[in-house]
Amino acid sequence: MRRALELARHAEAQGEVPVGAVLVLGDEIVGEGWNQPISRHDPSAHAEIMALRDAGRRLGNYRLPETTLYVTLEPCPMCAGAIVHARVGKVIYAASDPRSGAAGSVFDLLPSDQRFNHVTEAEGGLLAEESAELLRQFFRARRR
């Protein structure tokens, strides 16, 4: 999660909402990403999607079973869908997202929706305060 927070700070330095994500297989980082929708002019360029794309290229596969995704903010419904379709084994997120979180805050796509053909485990709270404070500071500065 520390690496994901570094990537979130990288996003912030680029004027993006500070969210970072790291995909791990065993003890190895196989994908990294940070929010880039503004700079890429791509509404799907969330940190999680970028990490999945990076891992898919590195591993030569769009399926990413037995991986764990560490992300600094609870995934949104779009990202949750991509995570499920990629067959990610587990998501560990820092801060909850009370506006669009899809791991229980607003929607229950991870892990409880049994209608999918793959269930991804999810757990939140790892370094939650550090991530939430980074987001609060970013939006506070934006409102000024």
Main attributes?
144 residues, alpha/beta, 5-stranded mixed beta sheet, 21% strand
Mean pLDDT: 97
Structural class: alpha/beta
Succession of helices and strands: HEEHHEHEEH
With strands numbered from the N-terminus, the spatial order across the biggest sheet is 2-1-3-4-5
Q: How would you describe this protein?
A:
This protein is α/β, with parallel strands linked by helices and 144 residues long. It has helices spanning 2-13, 37-40, 47-59, 77-85, 128-143; strands at 20-25, 28-34, 67-73, 90-95, 121-124. Strand 1 and strand 2 form a beta hairpin. The protein has five helices and five strands.
Strand and helix layout:
Blueprint: H1 2-13, E1 20-25, E2 28-34, H2 37-40, H3 47-59, E3 67-73, H4 77-85, E4 90-95, E5 121-124, H5 128-143
Parallel strand pairs: 3-4, 4-5
Antiparallel strand pairs: 1-2, 1-3
Helix pairs in contact: 1-5
What is the structure about, briefly put?
The protein has helices spanning 2-13, 37-40, 47-59, 77-85, 128-143; strands spanning 20-25, 28-34, 67-73, 90-95, 121-124. It is of the alpha/beta class and 144 residues long. It is globular.
